Fold this sequence. Notes:
38% of the residues lie in helices and 14% in strands. It has helices at residues 32-44, 64-77, 97-114, 129-132, 150-169, 187-197, 209-212, 221-228, 265-274, 290-304, and strands at residues 10-12, 49-51, 80-85, 118-122, 173-177, 202-205, 235-237, 239-244, 251-256, 281-283. The chain has one domain (10-304): TIM Barrel. Helix 3 (97-114) packs parallel to helix 5 (150-169) and helix 5 (150-169) packs across helix 6. It contains 10 helices and 10 strands. It starts with 9 loop residues before the first strand and ends in a 6-residue tail after the last helix. The strands form 2 sheets. It has an 8-stranded parallel sheet. A two-stranded antiparallel sheet has the order 8-9.
Amino acid sequence: MSYTAQNWPIAAAMLQFPNMASDGTSVQDQSAAEWTATLFEVADAGFSEVDLTDGWLRPGDLSAGRLEELKGALCEAGLTAPAISAIRRSVIDPADGDENLAYSHRTIDAAAALGVPVVSVGLHRPLTPEQRAVLWFWTVPGPKDPEGDRDTWDKAVTRLRELAGHAAEVGVGLSLEMYEDTYLGTADSAVALLTDIDRDNVGLNPDLGNLLRMQRPIESWESMVEKTLPHANYWHVKNYYRSEDPATGAVFTTPAPLESGFMSYRKAVRFAIGNGFNGAFCVEHYGGDGLSVSASNRDYLRRILPRKAA
Length: 310
């Protein structure tokens, strides 16, 4: 399908919604009415699509009956879900890789049951206590995939290929989220991993914001766009202010609205569409009223997307 600025699917991430309610109960155990109330917040911000980010609710851990309740909640709120994002569930995590692999399989089945076309997975791991203790978690180094370790690389390829095969069987696409210090942490490495997996239903989720915010030297965003966007089938978009002091080498980053940060999404989106991108967007933002900033990011995208289908 060819989209236009008016109907291109642009989903809100659920980053602003915790997995525990204010009374200490788990969102996982809430009633369908409570899920619907949260989803109405997204709809009231002007969204017609939502990314079922599993930091809020884990579809892969719902029973068949509860998945039907979730489907009903989405319908009542007037929302569709172009993707489920499984966050910090690396299938090569040294401690939890086996469980994360099983969870990812369950998430694929949940996507099929809900009619969600894409599951986004990555190789990033849970935040460390040190990362959780600071204002912006990316200012403290987190876990890293071992560089030059062929066995671990091959394990990632094998396990992600396994997920791809399952996803293909149930009619779901798989998208690989780029994230710092993982095998999806540079443009070259992400494309190499995708090439080794070699499955038609797998693409990249070039969440370049995860790399723009690194407080160290980075590849130019233009180069990363050129390398990764031709392989994208889903796209988390967010932006950052970035300041570099050449005298000391110090780098400072902080979240920015999509239109005013370091990376020009006008240029990036134009390049992506020119190279065949036809997937959904997911707008994200950390800090403040992230849902409202995400809504502004959505409106910005609609201003720069094509008026007519190609």
